[in-house]
TrEMBL record:
This is YxeA family protein. Pfam families: DUF1093. The lineage of its organism: Bacteria, Bacillati, Bacillota, Bacilli, Bacillales. It comes from Lederbergia ruris. NCBIfam families: yxeA_fam.
Length: 119
């Protein structure tokens, strides 16, 4: 009886830990290459009609991006809102070209070679 209670307790701890882990980890970033870019321009506004009749607005950006070594690649990605002009972004890229996620970073977080190119 005691062994089965311990086993059930261990399973519950593993399940709760797994749920907490999945809530705090963005799987779109796991295993992705990192590129840095700076927002220049307003992006191209696109409107998609949803099945319920609503309108979904997105902004598409095509910008040069740089890996930590300063190698350039032009990447295309979209956002649900217009991004702040001159903001620095960290792009998460899978399959060499698919931007799966992004986050804004401060200029002091840029790798040295990237900062030299973007500033």
């Amino acid at each position: 009886m005691k062994k089965s209670m311990i086993a059930i307790g261990i399973v519950l701890v593993i399940l709760v830990g797994g749920v907490i882990f999945l809530q705090n980890v963005n799987l779109n970033r796991v295993g992705a290459d990192e590129y840095f870019t700076q927002i220049n321009g307003e992006g191209t506004k696109t409107e998609d009609k949803m099945s319920d009749g609503g309108i979904h607005i997105r902004y598409e950006y095509e910008l040069p991006a740089y890996d930590k070594d300063g190698n350039q690649k032009t990447l295309t990605f979209s956002a649900d809102k217009q991004l702040r002009e001159n903001a620095y972004l960290l792009l998460f890229v899978k399959n060499g070209k698919d931007v799966t996620s992004y986050q804004e970073v401060k200029d002091e977080e840029l790798p040295k070679k990237v900062a030299e190119v973007l500033e």
